[in-house]
Amino acid sequence: MFRATLQDVSLLRDSLDSIASLITEGSFAIDGEGIKLTAMDPASVAMVSLRILPTTFLDFSSQENQVVTLNIPNIVEILKRARANDQVTLELTENKLKITMQGDFRRNFSVPILETPHSHHKIPELDFKGRVVLSSNAMRDGIKDAAMVSDCVILQAEPTKFSIKSFGDISETNMELTKDATSLISLEVGSLIKAKYSIDYLDKMLKGSRVADQITLMFSTDYPMRIDCTAIDKLQLSFILAPRVDTD
Description:
The chain has two domains: about 1-110, Proliferating Cell Nuclear Antigen; about 130-240, Box (Proliferating Cell Nuclear Antigen). Helix 1 runs antiparallel to helix 2 (about 70-80). Helices cover about 15% and strands about 45% of the residues. The protein starts with a strand and ends in a 7-residue tail after the last strand. The chain is of the alpha+beta class and about 250 residues long. It contains four helices and 18 strands. The relative contact order is 0.18.
C-alpha cells in the first residue's frame, strides 16, 4: 500500500521531466523513508539518482517496501496536466499507479506498472578534485552560450575562478565567474582542473535545476562529473556524466 499527496506538484514534475529526457522506464523503490530511483541511460553515458523525502508531501504512507517500474515520460505528461491549485494524489493499486488531481473538479488518471528488470544500478564512488556551487541560472546561461558554437563544453576550475568554455571552427564562448561573483556561491579546488562534456546531455540534465536555485558540480580533469540539484528537506536529484575525451 502506497499513498501520497502533493500540494505543489512542480518539484516532482520538474525532476521527473529531466529524468525522462535520459531514460524511458525507471524502477522506483518506495518505503517509509521516501522514494528512490537510480538508473543509467541506454548509452551508458549518464546516470541519474533521485531521492524524494516524505516531507515533500502533505501526507505520505507506505506500509511495505516495494519496487515499481513505470514509464516516466507518461507520468510527466500526466503531471503537466495539473493546475496550479490542484492537490495531486499518487496511489498504488495491484497493477497500476493511480493519479488523482483535485481542484475545482476531480480528474483521475492511471498508468500500468511494468515488469521490473533484474539489472540494478549503484552510484559509483568517485574521487573528485573540485567542487563548484553556482546559481542554476548562471549554469544554464553558460551552457546555452556554449551550444551556439559547439556540441561540447569545457568546464574549468582553478583556485580563483570557474569557467564555462566552448570552441567551434570559427567561434568561441567563455563565461568566467571569479570568486567575488554573486552567482558563484562556493569554489573548492586546489589546482587547475578541466574536462569536456556533451552539451546535449547537460542540457537535458539542467532541466532538473528548476527544483533548486543553486546546483553543485563535482569533477576532475578528464573525469566524470556529478551534478546535484537539492531542494532542502524535500528531494535531491543527481546526475553523473561521463567526459568527452579527445582521441586525436
